[in-house]
Amino acid sequence: MSIHIEENLFSLETKNTLYQMMKDPYGQLLHLWYGKKTDQNMDYLINSNEINYTGVLYESQHDRSYSNDILPFELPVSGHGDFRISALSIELPEGSVDLDLRIKEVIPKDHKEPLNGLPYSHDGKNEKAEAMDIVLEDHQAAIEVILHYSVFYETDVIARSVEVINHNEKAIRIRRIFPISLDFQEQKFDLIHFYGRHVMERQFEREPISHGIKNISSSRAMSSHQHNPALILASPNADELSGSCYGNLLMYSGSFAGLVEKDQIDQIRLLLGMNPDHFSWTLKSNERFQSPEGLMSYSEDGFSTLSHNFHHVIEDHVMRGRFAKEAKPVLLNSWEAAYFTFDGLSILNLARETKELGADLLVLDDGWFGYRNNDYTSLGDWQVNEEKLQMPLEMLVRQVHQMGLKFGLWIEPEMISEDSDLYRKHPEWAMVIPSRKPLVARSQLVLDMANPEVVNYLYDLFSKIIRDTHLDYIKWDFNRSPDPLYSSVLPANRQSEVSHRFVLGTYNLLERLTHEFPDVLFEGCAGGGGRFDAGMLYYTPQIWCSDDTDAHERSKIQYGTSFFYPIRSVGSHVSAIPNHQTGRKISLNDRKIAASPGTFGYELNPAELEWSEKRDIEKQIIEYKRRQPLIFDGNYYRLSNPFEDHAAAWMFVDKNQDKALVQGMFYRFISNYPGRKVVLAGLDPDKKYEVTYSSFPLSSHGRFEEENESAPAKAIFSGQALMTGGIRVQTSMNDDAGFELELESLN
Ligand code: GLA
C-alpha cells in the first residue's frame, strides 16, 4: 500500500520517498514533506513564530503565528492571505479573486480514472497506479476542487492533476491552474532548466535560486524550442550520482509556466502548469475543468537516478502501444537527401539504397502533396502530387514494400498555407482575426484546432491516406507556433481559451489516429524538437530531437533531453557532411556515435557516398541493431557535462549489470596530452569486465592488447576500478573525436 490516510494525515509512499500532507485545525490542506522517507508525522516543522505583517484566517485571529502567507500549502490559491505565487486562481461571479478551500473528503481509489481528452499516466505492464482524491471546497462560493493523485511505487513517481467543478449557479473563471505545486521550508536549491531555440533545443542551465520569482515558460501554444516543461530543484551539492534532487515534468504540449519563488523567510515554492498568460477559462454552472497532469520524482542519489525514474515512468506509464516497448526501425529520411527535389523514380532509388544499407524504413518527407516544391505553398492540400511523383502514391508504396522495406510519410496536419485550395475554400478555418493581418511564419498559417469541424476533417483525411496507402510510419510535424490565438467558433469572451482548446483539438486528432492505427509508428516533430514533451510521448512514442544533426551540437542537445526523456524516444540520425546546419565535418564513425543514443537512422543520400562509406554504414546498422536492446532497455548514465567538460560521454548498462556500452566525444583535441579519462557508472563493483575498445585501440595502464590492426583491442578491469579511477580513452587527432567501449562481465 502506498497510500495512507490517517485522521488528519495523508501520506503517499513510493519505494524510496514520502509525500505527506495534513489537514490543519481549520480544515486547510497543508503540504508537510516530500523527499526521503521518514518514520513520522512531519508537522513539527511548521513555523510557530509570528511573522509581522502577515494576515491570519478569521477563525484564528488571536493566534498571529498561524498565517496563510507563510504556511506550506498543498494547493496554494490566490486570495485569502497567501501572497506568494498561486497554483489556482479563480474569479468568482462577483468578479473578485478569493478562494477559501477547506478539505471536504479524502477518497482512496482502487484504480486510476482516465483524464478525459488529455494524456495521463496509466497502469503499466508490471505496475498498477494507486490513486487518491482529495476533495477541497469553497463552501460559500460553491466551488469544488479535486486533487487527483496517483502513485507509482516502484518507479518512485507521483502524479497529480487538479479538477475544478463549479456548483455555483453563476459562471466563474479560472485564471491559473498548476497541477504541480511544491512548498519547501527554508531550503537552498539550484534550479535546473532547459532553454534553447530552433536547432539548439534543451540546453542545460543550472543556477542558484535567489529571492523573487523565476519564470521558465512558453506562451507559444506549444511546449517550445525555447523552454521545456521540465524543472529540477537540486541541492547545491547534487551531481549525477549523489545529492538530493526533485524532478518535475508536465504532461502537456501547449503553453506552460514553471515558476519558482523564494519568499520573505527563504521558503521555496515551485509551480509547474498551464501558462496563465493568454489563458482563462469560463466554467458555467455544473461544468468541470480538468488540468493536465504533472509528474514528480525525488532522488537522493543524484540526477542519474532521477532520470531513470522519469525514463521508466514514461516508458511504462506514459507511452502506449507496441512501440513503447518494441524494437524500433532504423530509418532513412529523404529530407536532407533530396529536400523538395524528387520524383517517384528517385524515391525508389533512395529506397533501393536504403534497403542495401540494411535499414528498415524509408521516410518520404515534405514535398509529396499539392504543389509543394518549396515551403511557400500547399499545406492543407494533402492530395498526392502525381505530376511530380509520376505515379500514384499507392504504387510507390507498393514497390517499396516489395523491396522488403517499410514506408513512411511526413505530414503537418495543424497547418495551412495561404496559397492552398483549403484556405481558398475555408479561410475561417485558419487562425486569423477577421479584418486583421495574421502573423506568418515559414509562410504558413495555423489551422483552428479549437474548431471540432477542422479536427473531424483532418481525421477523415489522414485516416484515409494511412489506410489507402498502407503506411507504416508517420512523421507529424509542426513548424510554427499558433499566433494569433483566435478561433472563429468561439465568442469574444472565450478567446482566452483558444490556446488550450487548440492543444485539446490536436490531442483529439492524435488519439483517434493512433487508436485506429496501432501498427503505424508515429514520430512527433516540431521544426526538430520544438514539441518534445511527455504529452506528445503519450501519442507518439518517438520525437525528432532537433533539426541540428551536427554530432558536436547534437550531443549537447541530447544531453539536456536525457534528463527526463527516455533514450528510446529520441529520434536521432546521421547526416551528410559538411553538416547542413553548421558546416562541420565530423567523421562517419563519430557521427554514428553521436546518433546512437536514440532511435537511429540516416538523413542523407547514399548515392552521393563513396562505396567504402556505404559499407561502413551497413556495418553501423548491423552494430546498432545488435546494441538497440541495451540502448533502449538499459539504464542510461551521463558521464560528463558537455557544457563544462568540453566532452560528451554517456553509457548504457543492462539491468543485470553484465553488458555496457560507453560512448562519447571530446570536443577539442589537445596535443601532447595523455589519453583522457572517463569515469564509468552503474556497473557492479564486484564484477570483472572485459572492455572492447572498438573505435581507436589505445590506452595506458589497462594496456589494451592489440591483436592485429583490424581486431578491436580488449582488456579486463574490475567494475569498482572503472567507477572509481575510470578508464583512459584515446581518440583520433582531431576535434570532435568520438570513442566507444563495449563491456561484458566475466562472472
Ligand atoms: C521541419 C522538420 C524537418 C523537415 C522539414 C520539412 O523543419 O524538422 O525534419 O521535416 O520540416 O519541411
TrEMBL record:
One of its GO terms (molecular function) is alpha-galactosidase activity. Residues 648-731 form the Glycosyl hydrolase family 36 C-terminal domain. It comes from the Bacteria. Pfam families: Glyco_hydro_36C (PF16874), Glyco_hydro_36N (PF16875), Melibiase (PF02065). Residues 27-284 form the Glycosyl hydrolase family 36 N-terminal domain. Its EC number is 3.2.1.22. It catalyses: Hydrolysis of terminal, non-reducing alpha-D-galactose residues in alpha-D-galactosides, including galactose oligosaccharides, galactomannans and galactolipids. Keywords: Glycosidase, Hydrolase. The active site is at 477 (nucleophile), 547 (proton donor). One of its GO terms (biological process) is carbohydrate catabolic process. CDD domains: GH36 (cd14791). Belongs to the glycosyl hydrolase. This is Alpha-galactosidase. It comes from Ileibacterium valens.
